[in-house]
Amino acid sequence: LGPEVALHAIQHRGADGRRVYDVSLERMAERGVALVRRVQSRGPYALCGTSFGGLVALEVGRRLRQAGDDVPVLALLDTYAPGYPPVRRDLGVTDRLRLLRRALRPLGHKDEPGWANLRRGLREQLLRLRARIGVGRPRPHAPPLPATTRFIHLQEACFRATRTLRLAAYDGPVQLFRVDAPPPAALFALDATLGWGEWITGRLDVDVIPGRHSWHLREPNVQTLAAKLRALLASVPRGDQWDAPALWDGLADWWDGHVGDGGSDAFRDVALAALERLIDVRAGERVLDVACGNGWLSRRLAAGGARVTAVDASEGMLRHARARGGVVEFRRLDVTKPAELRQLADSTYDLAVCNLALHDLADVHPLFDALGRIVRRDGRIVLSLVHPARAFDDGVPAGVPVPRLAVPQQPMPHVEVTRPLSDLWRIAADAGLRLETLLELPAGDDPAFAIARLRFDVLRP
């Protein structure tokens, strides 16, 4: 996850080889809450658990929320809901024999055929029988178990806790990561939420990671998982700030596929023609595309004969922008940081465009101040944004960072700040700009997008 993330791991009791175990989810969660509070006495908390550890993280999160703490991140790493996956009811004799062979194979290798694997599974079954007996008979004064058998004992303690599991519904946000190689659908009734649909009453987002169960923590699969976890953590506001570049780095692959070379379907159908009409690009003009993403609009402007510089804070987005080609200068630059904006020279651009990005910025003041400096006095600035009325109708508060999904298929949320249009025009006026044209474009009965063109106030120096 990187050196900037403080990661605290909670071991199961008995991981050190001492022969005393927690064998109920309630006891595990009680201990988990105490250890979490020892590190950080109050929320917000980010919790994560893999396999059975996800059940513990979920119950720890429920207890923390019940105590009044915020748990904005709770990630389950291929954790099955109670009773999942159920065996299919229509199995024939051949499939039932296949199911039996699968049960006899060792954990982590259930779907690997062959007699050698079956023999390893039978030997493991004997070890598990001894472990079940040991877990049920605590021996705190006995010598620690050898490292080779500790994990099987821990697994059996978790299996015993599962048999007496009493799990309550969870009403907070949950991010579920499930592997792309699940158990065989011919034997089990599978579903995309791993059975969590009836247990998670809050927002449940599902993302797919490479590997099979438990192999998502091995190289190279763990690198993909780590990138997605970094992006998830980056989506959580810390005060008025969040790590937007890291967040969009994590979303860059998906976003590039979503918008392609023409923008999202919704924007293209409703707003693209109006945006290009207000832009009115001319051959030879110097154009700045602010927060360009994968550069789809930058390339359209360049195709119209403009000399385009496109900037974005996300290296992941810029990687896709450069890979798609086009005669565009792509630069990494964070427009929320005045020091980076000073890299742009005064009175350089005839036109500046910021397309569907203002709500992604923690602070828009530095950008507007810079636009008042770098755009020529006879130039123009064109902005497009999702109309704030849509978010306000959904109960989103004004001016507050909120995790949001652009579309339901988005694998994890990004952070948006929804500002009233009047606030944006006031900030623009403070930078010497005036609103020339405003288009509010509907989709059905509701406003979908707002597109504005700003020019310099001729009454101000």
Overall number of strands: 13
Biggest sheet record? 7 strands, mixed
Mean pLDDT: 92
User: Which ranges are low-confidence, i.e. pLDDT below 50, for 5 or more consecutive residues?
Assistant: none
Rg for CA atoms: 27 Å
Give helix % range. Answer: 25-40%
Backbone structural class = alpha/beta
Number of helical runs? 15
* CA-based shape: elongated
| Major β-sheet strand ordering | 7-6-5-8-9-13-12
**End-to-end span in angstroms?**
49 Å
DSSP strand content:
15-25%
Q: What letter string, H or E per element, gives the SSE order?
A: HEHEHHHEEHHHHEHEHEHEHEHEEHEE
Ordered list of secondary-structure elements with their pairings:
Blueprint (H helix, E strand, L loop, with lengths): L24 H15 L6 E5 L1 H15 L6 E5 L15 H12 L10 H21 L11 H17 L10 E8 L22 E9 L8 H14 L9 H16 L5 H6 L1 H8 L6 E5 L5 H8 L3 E6 L2 H9 L4 E5 L5 H4 L7 E7 L9 H10 E12 L1 H6 L7 E4 L9 E4 L3 H10 L2 E11 L2 E11 L5
Parallel strand pairs: 1-2, 2-3, 3-4, 5-6, 5-8, 6-7, 8-9
Antiparallel strand pairs: 9-13, 10-11, 12-13
Helix pairs in contact: 1-2, 4-5, 6-7, 7-11
Task: Write a concise keyword list for the protein shown above.
single chain; 461 residues; alpha/beta; seven-stranded mixed β-sheet; four-stranded parallel β-sheet; 15 helices; 13 strands; elongated
Short note summarizing the structure:
By secondary structure, the protein is α/β, with parallel strands linked by helices. The chain has helices at 25-39, 52-66, 93-104, 115-135, 147-163, 221-234, 244-259, 265-270, 272-279, 296-303, 315-323, 338-341, 365-374, 388-393, 421-430, and strands spanning 46-50, 73-77, 174-181, 204-212, 286-290, 307-312, 328-332, 349-355, 375-386, 401-404, 414-417, 433-443, 446-456.
